[in-house]
Amino acid sequence: MASGVYLPTFEDILDATALGLVWDAEDHKAALYNATRAGAADFNANTAYGTTNEISGTGYTPGGVVFTGTAFTRPGAGVSKFSSNAYQWTGSTLSGVRFIDHYADAVSGDPLMFGVDLVTAYNTADGTLLVTPHSNGLVTFDLTPP
Fold first, then answer.
1. Residue ranges of the domains in the chain?
2. For the range 38-41, what are the long-range contacts, defined as Cβ-Cβ under 8 Å and sequence gap of 24 or more?
């Protein structure tokens, strides 16, 4: 699969529904999933956080962790970058972590924002799973016409 933005949520922000999701709020969550979720993520249809194929293990709470330090910046003309601080699961024993769904926990219905395919499955053994956003951000929107 790939990484991407969940279009139903994005459309609900822009259409008459005017979904009250503030992207750079400090209460969104990141939940961990296995490879089956990575293959099943449908950015055109999935709408809300779910527990199917969510990771379980020591040091992991269902629903994931809050990620903070969220910000939009404009690194170039027509480009907007969404980023956050690094987030982590310390003292964890996890197996097969392959996908991360980011969702708006404080918004009714827990709408999905974007998903990240880690490409490789990761494991921890009483260790730390640390996610450090790339310098290009967690999500980059290029609104420049081709």
1. 4-135
2. 38/1, 38/98, 38/99, 38/117, 38/118, 39/1, 40/1, 41/1, 41/4, 41/99, 41/101, 41/115, 41/117
- Taking 3-state DSSP, the helix, strand and coil percentages for the chain, each rounded to the nearest 5, stand at 10, 45, 45
Sheet with 112-131, side-by-side order of all strands: 4-5, 112-131, 87-103, 29-33, 65-66
Nearest CA-CA partner of 143 in 92, 98, 84, 81: 81
Q: Which tens digit of pLDDT belongs to each residue from 97-143?
A: 999 999 999 999 999 999 999 999 999 999 999 999 999 999 999 98
